[in-house]
Amino acid sequence: MYNLKVVIIGAGIGGLTTGIAMRQAGYQVEIYDRAQELRPAGAGISLWSNGVKVLNHLGLGEKLAAIGGEMNAMEYRSHTDESLSYVDLRPLFEQVGQRPYPVARTDLQTMLFEAFGPEDVHLGMNCVGVEQDEHSATAIFENGERISGDLVVGADGIHSAVRACVVGQVERRYARYVNWNGLVKADPELCDPNLWVLYVGDSKRASMMPVGGDRFYFFFGAPMVEGTHVEPTYRQEELAKIFQGWPEPVQKLIQALDPEQTNRLEIGDIDPLEHLVKGRIALLGDSAHATTPTLGQGGCQAIEDAEVLTRYLHTTNIGVADALKRYEAARKDRTAELVLKARKRTSLIYGYVPEATEQWYSDLKQEPPESVINALAKVILAGPMG
Ligand code: FAD
């Protein structure tokens, strides 16, 4: 289809990537975000090869490589500092044809924002609903403004307002753990500069991976009841207590982090949805399939959505609603499967059944590197770019 006007709600990874793809397809695109200033939640993100391939296709490969870290291997270590598994990831890159890039979120957001162009991103616009008729869809904003287009894309995250207009109210499920994350200066005393290390034990984990700019993205995770709050000033005290007795690099990381710049998040997801579209409204990214981050695929799936949605609009001519139905058919099962797979992994990592978690620690020692690589390759190669 030609000459479409696309209204996108949300200027996160999903909304911006969709904006870039739709623009390249020749469409008129406007993005609206409720934030007054775009600031990503979270410090880093690992873009696996399926997400990277889409960004390559959009012409962003070189820029992404410049902000990405060079992660060549991953290692699981126990909280008593025993190596449980070591996987050289380079055979994976050979198999799938592209390396992944761990990046600082601010760098990624800036890259996408600049590639889309700031002039068509409208901030301070809180979408409260969407209406549609046979010919158009209209986003309604808290300030009373109404913006119409041929379609409205709800890329407005886990607490999506657009989602309510497609499938009704959906509650976020708390995943029973807290995640802390941030960036520190790369230091070989913390981690090998080309390694993704994960310390695990007692149903908790602590991890570091390289991102561009000579930094490590780090995260910690620990089971916790819902509703706890700790002021940023006390980040180090809290982590030092939870990870007391863990290996030296973990202790050094806690000392090295900037407490005011360390995020503390309660992690959740949503049940797979019955529908991702309704007429001229499409859900995309976390609004469609928010997941726990234990597979590192949430952002990658948002990027895949952008590619697939644009492809169906661009390569079919029955009508917008028809293209959206095709998008739903292509994305629903893949994303649902990953949400449920991540949920299962979350339960294993964070000790929902402590015996199963202990068993997983011993299984890690037995698991051949090839099976880790094959599992990762399977997810990557099932993406829209193969
Ligand atoms: P968001 O990034 O949430 O963006 C939504 C945007 O919509 C925001 O800018 C918001 O301001 C705006 N908005 C919200 N409501 C409204 C409204 N009513 N009106 C207007 N605007 C609105 N994924 C990976 O691929 N790899 C990883 O390694 C990885 N690690 C993760 C680690 C953690 C701790 C977490 C929490 C997630 C991780 N993810 C990862 C998942 C990834 O961050 C998300 O899947 C991704 O950010 C979703 O992008 P999005 O654009 O759909 O939503």
TrEMBL record:
A GO molecular-function descriptor: urate oxidase activity
Catalytic activity: urate + NADH + O2 + H(+) = 5-hydroxyisourate + NAD(+) + H2O
Entry keywords, A to Z: FAD, Flavoprotein, Monooxygenase, NAD, Oxidoreductase, Purine metabolism
Enzyme Commission number(s): 1.14.13.113
This protein's pathway: Purine metabolism; urate degradation
Enzyme class: oxidoreductase
Gene Ontology BP, a term: purine nucleobase metabolic process
Top-level taxonomic group: Bacteria
UniProt name for this protein: FAD-dependent urate hydroxylase
Organism name: Phormidium tenue NIES-30
